[in-house]
Design brief:
With 256 residues, the chain is of the alpha/beta class. It has two domains: 7-141, UDP N-Acetylglucosamine Acyltransferase, domain 1; 196-248, Udp N-acetylglucosamine O-acyltransferase, Domain 2 (Up-down Bundle). The protein has helices at residues 193-198, 203-217, 223-234, 238-248; strands at 7-8, 13-14, 19-20, 25-26, 30-32, 37-38, 43-44, 48-50, 55-56, 61-64, 77-80, 85-86, 91-93, 102-105, 110-111, 116-117, 122-123, 128-129, 134-135, 140-141, 146-147, 152-153, 158-159, 164-165, 170-171, 179-182, 187-191. Strands 3-6-9-12-15-18-21-24-26-27 form a ten-stranded mixed β-sheet. Strands 1-4-7-10-13-16-19-22-25 form a nine-stranded parallel β-sheet, with no helix packed on it. An eight-stranded parallel β-sheet has the order 2-5-8-11-14-17-20-23, with no helix packed on it. Strand 26 (179-182) and strand 27 (187-191) form a beta hairpin. The protein is elongated, with a radius of gyration of 20 Å. The relative contact order is 0.08.
Length: 256
Protein backbone atom coordinates (compact mmCIF):
# COMPACT_ATOMS: atom_id res chain seq x y z
CA UNK A 1 0.00 0.00 0.00
CA UNK A 2 1.74 3.15 -1.24
CA UNK A 3 -0.27 6.34 -1.04
CA UNK A 4 -0.46 8.13 -4.41
CA UNK A 5 1.08 11.29 -2.92
CA UNK A 6 4.16 9.43 -1.63
CA UNK A 7 7.35 9.70 -3.71
CA UNK A 8 9.32 6.46 -3.86
CA UNK A 9 12.58 6.19 -5.78
CA UNK A 10 12.65 3.58 -8.51
CA UNK A 11 15.95 2.41 -6.97
CA UNK A 12 14.36 1.64 -3.58
CA UNK A 13 13.61 -2.01 -2.75
CA UNK A 14 10.24 -2.53 -1.10
CA UNK A 15 9.25 -5.83 0.56
CA UNK A 16 5.83 -7.47 0.85
CA UNK A 17 2.99 -6.00 2.92
CA UNK A 18 4.71 -2.60 3.26
CA UNK A 19 2.57 0.50 3.73
CA UNK A 20 3.81 4.03 2.95
CA UNK A 21 1.62 6.96 3.95
CA UNK A 22 0.81 10.24 2.22
CA UNK A 23 3.56 12.71 1.30
CA UNK A 24 6.35 10.43 2.49
CA UNK A 25 9.63 10.48 0.58
CA UNK A 26 11.67 7.29 0.07
CA UNK A 27 15.05 7.92 -1.54
CA UNK A 28 17.56 5.86 -3.47
CA UNK A 29 19.31 2.82 -2.00
CA UNK A 30 16.63 2.33 0.65
CA UNK A 31 15.80 -1.31 1.42
CA UNK A 32 12.51 -1.87 3.25
CA UNK A 33 11.83 -5.39 4.52
CA UNK A 34 8.44 -7.10 4.75
CA UNK A 35 5.68 -5.78 6.96
CA UNK A 36 7.10 -2.29 7.55
CA UNK A 37 4.61 0.53 8.23
CA UNK A 38 5.67 4.06 7.27
CA UNK A 39 3.22 6.83 8.15
CA UNK A 40 2.69 10.08 6.28
CA UNK A 41 5.24 12.88 6.01
CA UNK A 42 8.25 10.63 6.69
CA UNK A 43 11.57 11.33 4.93
CA UNK A 44 13.95 8.41 4.39
CA UNK A 45 17.23 8.59 2.47
CA UNK A 46 19.74 5.84 1.78
CA UNK A 47 21.79 3.86 1.87
CA UNK A 48 19.48 2.54 4.58
CA UNK A 49 18.04 -0.86 5.48
CA UNK A 50 14.83 -1.22 7.52
CA UNK A 51 14.12 -4.55 9.24
CA UNK A 52 10.78 -6.31 9.06
CA UNK A 53 7.88 -5.32 11.28
CA UNK A 54 9.20 -1.82 11.99
CA UNK A 55 6.75 1.06 12.43
CA UNK A 56 7.75 4.66 11.64
CA UNK A 57 5.45 7.51 12.71
CA UNK A 58 4.86 10.89 11.00
CA UNK A 59 7.60 13.49 10.47
CA UNK A 60 10.48 11.15 11.25
CA UNK A 61 13.63 11.94 9.26
CA UNK A 62 15.83 8.90 8.83
CA UNK A 63 19.10 8.26 7.01
CA UNK A 64 19.98 11.82 6.07
CA UNK A 65 23.63 12.94 6.00
CA UNK A 66 25.40 13.27 9.36
CA UNK A 67 25.62 16.60 11.15
CA UNK A 68 29.41 16.57 11.02
CA UNK A 69 31.51 19.26 9.35
CA UNK A 70 34.06 16.62 8.32
CA UNK A 71 31.45 14.83 6.19
CA UNK A 72 32.14 15.42 2.50
CA UNK A 73 29.33 13.42 0.89
CA UNK A 74 30.93 10.00 1.05
CA UNK A 75 28.62 6.99 0.81
CA UNK A 76 27.80 5.82 4.33
CA UNK A 77 24.99 3.71 5.76
CA UNK A 78 22.35 3.36 8.43
CA UNK A 79 20.78 0.03 9.37
CA UNK A 80 17.68 -0.52 11.47
CA UNK A 81 16.75 -3.98 12.74
CA UNK A 82 13.41 -5.71 13.17
CA UNK A 83 10.28 -4.64 15.03
CA UNK A 84 11.48 -1.19 16.02
CA UNK A 85 8.99 1.58 16.81
CA UNK A 86 10.15 5.03 15.68
CA UNK A 87 7.85 7.78 16.92
CA UNK A 88 7.11 11.27 15.63
CA UNK A 89 9.92 13.72 14.74
CA UNK A 90 12.74 11.26 15.40
CA UNK A 91 15.98 11.93 13.52
CA UNK A 92 18.66 9.34 12.74
CA UNK A 93 21.74 10.11 10.66
CA UNK A 94 24.00 7.93 8.58
CA UNK A 95 27.60 7.28 9.63
CA UNK A 96 30.81 9.04 8.63
CA UNK A 97 33.86 7.62 6.91
CA UNK A 98 36.02 8.50 9.91
CA UNK A 99 33.63 6.72 12.27
CA UNK A 100 33.27 3.44 10.40
CA UNK A 101 30.67 4.59 7.84
CA UNK A 102 27.77 3.01 9.74
CA UNK A 103 25.04 3.96 12.18
CA UNK A 104 23.38 0.80 13.46
CA UNK A 105 20.23 0.15 15.52
CA UNK A 106 19.29 -3.38 16.62
CA UNK A 107 15.89 -5.00 17.15
CA UNK A 108 12.81 -4.28 19.28
CA UNK A 109 13.72 -0.72 20.28
CA UNK A 110 11.22 2.01 21.16
CA UNK A 111 12.49 5.44 20.12
CA UNK A 112 10.00 8.03 21.36
CA UNK A 113 9.07 11.44 20.02
CA UNK A 114 11.84 13.93 19.11
CA UNK A 115 14.75 11.61 19.92
CA UNK A 116 17.99 11.95 17.97
CA UNK A 117 20.51 9.24 17.06
CA UNK A 118 23.61 10.85 15.57
CA UNK A 119 26.21 9.54 13.15
CA UNK A 120 28.20 6.38 13.88
CA UNK A 121 26.11 5.38 16.91
CA UNK A 122 25.80 1.66 17.60
CA UNK A 123 22.59 0.87 19.44
CA UNK A 124 21.72 -2.64 20.62
CA UNK A 125 18.29 -4.21 21.11
CA UNK A 126 15.32 -3.94 23.49
CA UNK A 127 16.13 -0.34 24.44
CA UNK A 128 13.80 2.55 25.24
CA UNK A 129 14.67 6.18 24.58
CA UNK A 130 12.05 8.48 26.10
CA UNK A 131 10.92 11.75 24.50
CA UNK A 132 13.71 14.09 23.46
CA UNK A 133 16.64 11.89 24.47
CA UNK A 134 19.66 12.47 22.24
CA UNK A 135 22.78 10.48 21.40
CA UNK A 136 25.73 12.45 20.06
CA UNK A 137 28.09 10.87 17.54
CA UNK A 138 29.87 7.57 18.14
CA UNK A 139 27.80 6.57 21.19
CA UNK A 140 27.63 2.83 21.87
CA UNK A 141 24.56 1.46 23.66
CA UNK A 142 24.10 -2.11 24.82
CA UNK A 143 20.79 -3.92 25.36
CA UNK A 144 17.78 -3.46 27.67
CA UNK A 145 18.65 0.16 28.46
CA UNK A 146 16.20 2.89 29.46
CA UNK A 147 17.17 6.51 28.75
CA UNK A 148 14.91 9.11 30.36
CA UNK A 149 13.34 12.07 28.61
CA UNK A 150 15.56 14.91 27.37
CA UNK A 151 18.78 13.20 28.41
CA UNK A 152 21.90 14.11 26.44
CA UNK A 153 24.69 11.60 25.90
CA UNK A 154 28.14 12.97 24.99
CA UNK A 155 30.14 11.82 21.97
CA UNK A 156 32.07 8.53 22.29
CA UNK A 157 30.30 7.48 25.51
CA UNK A 158 29.18 3.92 26.14
CA UNK A 159 26.08 2.82 28.04
CA UNK A 160 26.18 -0.71 29.47
CA UNK A 161 23.50 -3.39 29.34
CA UNK A 162 20.49 -3.00 31.65
CA UNK A 163 21.40 0.58 32.59
CA UNK A 164 18.76 3.06 33.71
CA UNK A 165 19.39 6.75 32.93
CA UNK A 166 17.12 9.27 34.66
CA UNK A 167 15.34 12.04 32.79
CA UNK A 168 17.19 15.29 32.01
CA UNK A 169 20.57 13.71 32.75
CA UNK A 170 23.84 14.84 31.18
CA UNK A 171 26.03 11.82 30.43
CA UNK A 172 29.64 12.88 29.80
CA UNK A 173 31.31 9.70 31.09
CA UNK A 174 30.33 6.13 30.42
CA UNK A 175 27.20 4.83 32.18
CA UNK A 176 27.76 1.56 34.03
CA UNK A 177 25.77 -1.57 33.18
CA UNK A 178 23.10 -2.74 35.65
CA UNK A 179 23.19 0.70 37.29
CA UNK A 180 20.96 3.72 37.97
CA UNK A 181 22.59 6.90 36.70
CA UNK A 182 20.91 10.27 37.07
CA UNK A 183 21.43 14.00 37.27
CA UNK A 184 22.54 17.15 35.47
CA UNK A 185 26.01 16.31 36.74
CA UNK A 186 25.34 12.61 36.44
CA UNK A 187 26.11 10.26 39.31
CA UNK A 188 25.66 6.53 39.76
CA UNK A 189 23.23 5.52 42.49
CA UNK A 190 23.90 1.78 42.59
CA UNK A 191 22.28 -1.24 41.02
CA UNK A 192 19.17 -0.93 38.85
CA UNK A 193 17.45 -3.44 41.13
CA UNK A 194 13.88 -2.91 39.93
CA UNK A 195 14.90 -3.16 36.28
CA UNK A 196 16.89 -6.33 36.92
CA UNK A 197 13.91 -7.94 38.67
CA UNK A 198 11.67 -7.05 35.74
CA UNK A 199 14.15 -8.65 33.37
CA UNK A 200 14.07 -11.90 35.35
CA UNK A 201 17.46 -11.78 37.07
CA UNK A 202 17.67 -14.20 39.98
CA UNK A 203 17.86 -12.97 43.58
CA UNK A 204 21.39 -14.36 43.78
CA UNK A 205 22.55 -12.47 40.68
CA UNK A 206 21.00 -9.22 41.90
CA UNK A 207 22.66 -9.64 45.30
CA UNK A 208 26.05 -10.17 43.63
CA UNK A 209 25.57 -7.09 41.44
CA UNK A 210 24.56 -5.04 44.49
CA UNK A 211 27.67 -6.20 46.32
CA UNK A 212 29.86 -5.22 43.35
CA UNK A 213 28.35 -1.72 43.37
CA UNK A 214 28.88 -1.46 47.11
CA UNK A 215 32.60 -2.09 46.53
CA UNK A 216 32.70 0.40 43.64
CA UNK A 217 30.69 3.24 45.19
CA UNK A 218 30.57 3.14 48.99
CA UNK A 219 33.53 1.11 50.26
CA UNK A 220 36.04 4.02 50.17
CA UNK A 221 38.20 1.97 47.78
CA UNK A 222 39.47 3.62 44.61
CA UNK A 223 38.34 2.10 41.33
CA UNK A 224 41.43 -0.10 40.88
CA UNK A 225 41.20 -1.42 44.42
CA UNK A 226 37.47 -2.05 44.06
CA UNK A 227 37.99 -3.99 40.85
CA UNK A 228 40.59 -6.20 42.51
CA UNK A 229 38.16 -6.95 45.34
CA UNK A 230 35.36 -7.67 42.88
CA UNK A 231 37.58 -10.04 40.91
CA UNK A 232 38.66 -11.82 44.10
CA UNK A 233 35.17 -12.19 45.55
CA UNK A 234 32.87 -12.46 42.51
CA UNK A 235 35.01 -13.47 39.51
CA UNK A 236 33.52 -16.04 37.13
CA UNK A 237 29.96 -14.74 37.30
CA UNK A 238 28.85 -13.57 33.85
CA UNK A 239 27.28 -10.27 34.87
CA UNK A 240 30.19 -9.38 37.12
CA UNK A 241 32.79 -10.24 34.50
CA UNK A 242 30.95 -7.99 32.02
CA UNK A 243 30.87 -5.14 34.57
CA UNK A 244 34.60 -5.47 35.24
CA UNK A 245 35.44 -5.65 31.54
CA UNK A 246 33.26 -2.61 30.84
CA UNK A 247 35.16 -0.53 33.41
CA UNK A 248 38.62 -1.76 32.40
CA UNK A 249 37.93 -1.01 28.72
CA UNK A 250 36.61 2.48 29.35
CA UNK A 251 38.27 5.26 27.36
CA UNK A 252 36.40 8.19 28.92
CA UNK A 253 36.09 6.96 32.49
CA UNK A 254 32.88 5.73 34.09
CA UNK A 255 30.23 7.61 36.05
CA UNK A 256 30.57 6.90 39.78
Amino acid sequence: MIHPTAIVSSHARIGADVSIGPYSLIGEDVIIADGVEIAGHVVIEGPWEIGSGTIIYPFASIGLPPQDLKFKGEKTRLTLGKRNVIRENVTMNRGTAAGGSLTSIGDDNLIMTQCHVAHDCIVGSHNIMANGASLAGHVVMGDYIFIGAFTGVHQFCRIGNHAFIGAYSKIVKEALPYARTDGREAKCYGANTLGLRRRGFSKESIHQIQHAFHLLLTSKLNTSQALERIKAELSGLGEIDYLVEFIENSQRGVTK
